[in-house]
């Protein structure tokens, strides 16, 4: 790309806005630490052995305006046709009030995963509406709060069936599933040693030893068949039935749950989420009651708060499922929360009646199109369908696809003899006529009979909850979105100092481009001739990321960090198999590792062996030697997070890599903490063979309340052949040869629709800007650690007593003295207006703090002031001034309703509860009150409720 402003001007412009401290603040922070420059600080903190050999080769940085101008150029290279392609991705209209109020609103897109429920009630309520929507449409009682995409959701369904039906080793996939679903689900099944059969499920099931079937309803060609015979047949053989379906079709089709299905999966994209060139989109899963404790992903449940009123939270068994490590049933850590919120808002805004009108309009236009073709002598393959018409055109499919493109329409070449035309929300009368004309039919019939057979027409009511039947106007919707948003504490209000999460600024210059039509309205399976701009952007981004990490090649296909981990481990596993090392099936994982590491290893069919942690928080080299001695010839890999999850740059990392390589293993370096390396150190140069990156951390894609995420996988040269492959070109009927990679997501580029954000960030920073961001992140963490070390000991430090980009505050001794736990401190911080740091990870009883480079000195000092004040509150308990149970800490946080109630039973004052430091009194308008008091977590698990409660549950007139 060509810079349009000088490097100095553009760097000063963007970096000055991205970095929190100005030069005066930076010098003050360095002075507190005793260093005269950022370079001197980094020389003391970062081991010289890992410093990069040369800076990344990146373009000179440009201004925000120049970056957007370049994106306009790239967008203009895309050809945006009206999408009638289908194959799991449909034309839809995002209501502007939702696009502006949710997708483009920082209060929604900068929020973190709702692990602190008291400050997450708004997004939890929206996600509960999503679950309720899926439950009612699917006819099953429990749904999760979204999965990553339809193909991986299908793979999760297969895994769930195999766990529930332990004696079975075979799974049957419906040949009518979308090709990308077959590609991903079949390879994920084979990875866990299931036998896969892909067949036409209109035939009788044969054989035993079945875990279950995955049925298409409707099929990829649009065909609708009654799934009941297959469901009954698999149940008679002791297996389970999963159904892949389209949520809009379920407004007209009977729900799979009513038909006996055990699991329902699908994609909610057509509920108002743009095509986004393939993602991010919120997939879903609903299950029967007997499977509710095994459902993968997140599950929002209803509990009560300290006042006995309903409050939402993530159900315990799914809140941190990956923390079960090698015993986890899934490695899902993030989901697609922001997109699930968008879909649920779409359902709320249109309501039951509006969605029924949309579904009927889509179906009516599809049936009239099909009837018109038949009247004109053109053969239509299926009599029963919802929105997709498969048109038979022997030997002419591509010719007709090209003719449609000339007329402004993107349709699907199902095969050389068949064209698929899928109708979406915006399809008009003119579109029906124009498309009929492409097939040589000049007259469109005025009416056509329904193409949905009576046996599967919906009879059960759906979307009956008042939330789907009470908000009708844009005014109401605008206020509903604002009401929920106001309940939450996101990055637009305060720093979010979550260790290992890197909650930094998400630059608006990149954010606002994701909804530009020239990017957002491109179908993921459009031909290359129509996607030149997208592919050029992605190639540039992948090349830049390879430069920053020191690897040979990068794939952006994995649509979450967990999927990036899985893709990297599958590459390692397949590399060994291709070399004939079939016995290498052990993955060494340090005890301090993130829980997804072990869960991903299991999904890649690797056995986990834990390596101990030394007293200084580093990998115990003696234990590593012992494990390598014991398992050497079976070691496939080690997974290392660097800097370590303990917040320090381990100076032994090269030695660890060398030892594993000497034993014949590969080194996987988890890129979760790349914000401490970018611009200064390349994992591909100090020993890594593969890494995944979290673009929703270091590279500024927003967390979105738990997703979107993007987790690209970066590999050394010898692993390039094993990178993820395009799911649409795979042959699911045959096991992929081990000398190549397998797909992990529904589309070649995963959640491409948000890649403009990291592209913009790197374009606007360049190599020097990347370095500056890392330096300031390390400066902020060390300044905070130094200022708080007297109040809360810093558990681990590296060379020269310094930390990396985060630090762990140890509360365990204080807990022993006072009974005050790290959880109490997390809840009390809410009253000071802060999101808590990471709680009890990686060490129980601690808080892991990461301020990031984007927080200015005033905000960091405000957090320090809050923590020092809390330390004084703890000391009051230790000194006997107050009993723990009666303390301000044990009863935090405090709602506005509690503070203003006539009855105040506490010994401490209302002012101490709500305005604990004087500085808060100077800005009362910024005071945040949580909408609920402290939640009763145990109650929510004993009484698992995962759908919207009725409105009367929130009646506050009765305080009993």
TrEMBL record:
One function term, GO molecular function aspect: glycine dehydrogenase (decarboxylating) activity
InterPro entries cross-referenced by the UniProt entry: GcvP, GDC-P_C, GDC-P_N, GDC_P, PyrdxlP-dep_Trfase, PyrdxlP-dep_Trfase_major, PyrdxlP-dep_Trfase_small
Annotated Glycine dehydrogenase C-terminal domain residues: 773-894
Catalytic activity: N(6)-[(R)-lipoyl]-L-lysyl-[glycine-cleavage complex H protein] + glycine + H(+) = N(6)-[(R)-S(8)-aminomethyldihydrolipoyl]-L-lysyl-[glycine-cleavage complex H protein] + CO2
Enzyme class: oxidoreductase
Entry EC no(s): 1.4.4.2
Domain Glycine cleavage system P-protein N-terminal, chain residue ranges per copy: 17-439, 444-724
Recorded superkingdom: Bacteria
Keywords for the protein's UniProt record, in alphabetical order: Oxidoreductase, Pyridoxal phosphate
One Pfam family here: GcvP2_C
Cofactors that this protein relies on: pyridoxal 5'-phosphate
Job of this protein: The glycine cleavage system catalyzes the degradation of glycine. The P protein binds the alpha-amino group of glycine through its pyridoxal phosphate cofactor; CO(2) is released and the remaining methylamine moiety is then transferred to the lipoamide cofactor of the H protein.
PANTHER family documented for this protein: GLYCINE DEHYDROGENASE (DECARBOXYLATING), MITOCHONDRIAL (PTHR11773:SF1), GLYCINE DEHYDROGENASE, DECARBOXYLATING (PTHR11773)
Family: Belongs to the GcvP family.
Subunit structure: The glycine cleavage system is composed of four proteins: P, T, L and H.
Protein name, as recorded: glycine dehydrogenase (aminomethyl-transferring)
Species whose genome carries this gene: Corynebacterium guangdongense
Lineage: Bacteria, Bacillati, Actinomycetota, Actinomycetes, Mycobacteriales
């Amino acid at each position: 790309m060509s810079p349009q402003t000088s490097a100095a001007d553009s760097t000063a412009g963007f970096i000055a806005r991205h970095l929190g401290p100005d030069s005066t603040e930076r010098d003050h922070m360095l002075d507190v630490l005793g260093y005269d420059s950022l370079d001197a600080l980094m020389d003391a903190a970062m081991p010289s052995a890992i410093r990069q050999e040369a800076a990344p080769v990146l373009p000179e940085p440009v201004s925000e305006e120049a970056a957007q101008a370049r994106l306009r150029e790239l967008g203009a290279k895309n050809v945006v046709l009206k999408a009638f392609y289908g194959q799991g991705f449909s034309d839809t209209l995002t209501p502007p009030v939702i696009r502006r109020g949710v997708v483009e609103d920082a209060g929604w897109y900068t929020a973190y995963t709702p692990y602190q429920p008291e400050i997450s009630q708004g997004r939890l309520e929206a996600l509960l509406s999503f679950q309720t929507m899926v439950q009612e449409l699917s006819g099953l009682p429990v749904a999760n709060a979204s999965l990553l995409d339809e193909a991986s959701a299908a793979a999760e369904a297969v895994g769930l069936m195999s766990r529930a039906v332990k004696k079975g080793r075979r799974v049957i996939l419906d040949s009518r599933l979308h090709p990308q679903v077959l590609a991903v689900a079949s390879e994920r099944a084979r990875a866990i040693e299931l036998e896969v059969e892909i067949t036409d499920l209109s035939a009788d099931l044969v054989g035993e030893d079945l875990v279950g079937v995955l049925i298409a309803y409707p099929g990829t060609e649009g065909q609708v068949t009654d799934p009941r015979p297959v469901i009954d047949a698999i149940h008679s053989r002791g297996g389970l039935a999963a159904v892949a379906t389209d949520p809009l079709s379920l407004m007209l089709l009977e729900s799979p749950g009513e038909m006996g299905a055990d699991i329902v999966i699908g994609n909610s994209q057509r509920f108002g989420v743009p095509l986004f060139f393939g993602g991010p989109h919120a997939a879903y899963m609903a299950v029967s009651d007997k499977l509710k404790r095994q459902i993968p992903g997140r599950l929002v449940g209803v509990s009560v708060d300290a006042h006995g009123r309903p409050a939402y939270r993530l159900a315990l068994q799914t809140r941190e499922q990956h923390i079960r490590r090698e015993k986890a049933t899934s490695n899902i850590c993030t989901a697609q929360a922001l997109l699930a919120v968008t879909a649920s808002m779409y359902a709320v805004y249109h309501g039951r009646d509006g969605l029924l009108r949309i579904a009927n309009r889509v179906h009516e236009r599809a049936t009239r199109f099909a009837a018109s073709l038949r009247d004109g002598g053109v053969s239509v393959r299926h009599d029963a369908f919802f929105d997709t018409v498969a048109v038979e055109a022997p030997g002419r499919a591509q010719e007709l696809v090209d003719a449609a493109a000339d007329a402004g329409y993107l349709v699907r070449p199902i095969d050389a003899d068949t064209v698929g035309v899928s109708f979406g929300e915006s399809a008009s009368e003119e579109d029906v006529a124009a498309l009929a004309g492409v097939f040589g039919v000049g007259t469109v019939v005025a009416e056509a009979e329904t193409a949905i057979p009576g046996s599967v027409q919906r009879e059960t009511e759906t979307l009956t909850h008042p939330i789907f039947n009470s908000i009708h106007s844009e005014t109401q919707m605008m206020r509903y979105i604002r009401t929920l948003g106001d309940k939450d504490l996101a990055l637009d209000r305060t720093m979010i100092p979550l260790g290992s999460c890197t909650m930094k600024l998400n630059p608006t210059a990149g954010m606002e481009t994701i909804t530009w039509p020239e990017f957002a309205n491109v179908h993921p399976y459009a031909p290359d001739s129509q996607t030149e701009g997208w592919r050029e952007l992605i190639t540039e981004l992948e090349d830049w990321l390879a430069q920053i990490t020191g690897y040979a090649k990068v794939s952006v296909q994995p649509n979450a960090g967990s999927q990036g981990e899985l893709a990297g481990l599958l590459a390692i596993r397949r590399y060994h198999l291709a070399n004939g090392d079939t016995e290498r099936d052990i993955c060494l994982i340090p005890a301090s590792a993130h829980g997804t590491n072990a869960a991903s290893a299991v999904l890649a069919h690797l056995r986990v062996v834990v390596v101990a942690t030394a007293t200084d928080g580093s990998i115990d080299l003696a234990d590593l030697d012992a494990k390598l001695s014991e398992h050497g010839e079976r070691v496939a890999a080690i997974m290392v997070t660097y800097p370590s999850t303990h917040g320090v740059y381990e100076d032994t990392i090269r030695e660890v890599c060398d030892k594993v390589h000497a034993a014949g293993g590969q080194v996987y370096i988890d890129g979760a903490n790349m914000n401490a390396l970018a611009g200064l150190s390349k994992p591909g140069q100090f020993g890594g063979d593969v890494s995944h990156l979290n673009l929703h951390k270091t590279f500024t894609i927003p967390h979105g309340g738990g997703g979107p995420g993007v987790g690209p996988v970066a590999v050394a040269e010898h692993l390039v052949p094993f990178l993820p492959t395009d799911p649409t070109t795979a042959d699911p009927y045959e096991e992929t040869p081990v000398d190549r990679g397998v797909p992990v997501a529904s589309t070649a580029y995963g959640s491409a629709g948000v890649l403009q954000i990291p592209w913009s960030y790197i374009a606007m920073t360049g190599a020097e800007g990347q370095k500056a961001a890392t330096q300031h992140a390390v400066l902020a963490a060390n300044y905070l650690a130094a200022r708080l070390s007297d109040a809360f000991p810093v558990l681990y430090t590296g060379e020269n007593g310094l930390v990396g980009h985060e630090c762990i505050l140890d509360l365990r001794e204080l807990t022993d003295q006072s009974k005050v736990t790290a959880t109490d401190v997390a809840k009390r911080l809410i009253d000071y207006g802060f999101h808590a740091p990471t709680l009890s990870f990686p060490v129980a009883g601690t808080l892991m703090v990461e301020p990031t480079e984007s927080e200015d000195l005033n905000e960091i000092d405000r957090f320090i002031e809050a923590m020092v004040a809390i330390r004084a509150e703890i000391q009051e308990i230790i000194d006997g001034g107050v009993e723990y149970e009666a303390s301000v800490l044990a009863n935090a946080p405090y709602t506005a309703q509690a503070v203003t109630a006539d009855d105040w039973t506490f010994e401490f004052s209302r002012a101490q509860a709500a305005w604990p430091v004087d500085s808060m009194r100077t800005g009362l308008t910024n005071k945040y009150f949580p909408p609920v008091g402290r939640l009763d977590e145990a109650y929510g698990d004993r009484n698992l409720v995962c759908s919207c409660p009725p409105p009367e549950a929130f009646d506050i007139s009765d305080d009993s």
